[in-house]
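Progress against Task 2.4 (sequence-to-structure conversion) is shown through the following example record, which the project officer requested during the mid-term review.
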Amino acid sequence: MLYYLYMLNYRIKKSSKAKRVSIRIDQNRQVILTMPSLFPEYLAKQFIYQKQAWIEEKLATIPDNIYTPEHYKQHKEKARKIISARVQYWAHIMGLSYNRLSIRHTNTRWGSCSSKRNLNFSYKLIFLAPELMDYVIIHELAHLVEMNHSKRFWNIVATYCPDCSTHRAKLRNC
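Structure tokens generated for the chain above:
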């Protein structure tokens, strides 16, 4: 549910896994208050009211999102061509095959790999440096061998992308 507080809109998310109340601001400037399932909602609203100055300060540092649905429509086919070519290249090098490749408009993930061997990538990959795009592709292809983030998985990634830890750190800031 979406709430408003003095020109600030936010969403409350109840979670059985949450141990405390927390606030996060996503790349779309959406304020999300996560709280334990049994936490009283009025206390959560008090919490967000107390943190309003901090929230507004953080929102001021986040640029308006250029990745709109219209932007996605404009760049989807270009992204499909570029990403498909890179996935085919790396799949060949790594000796792997996959089922389906999808290009999506995602907000929180650069890519994913399903247990059905389907690969999904954000169209936003085409706006990254080529080595970062390749890192994401190698990462998802490695999941075709290891569907986890074990030491074996990271060894596979590092085999094809020796600078993977540097690239991973850079992606956190994108």
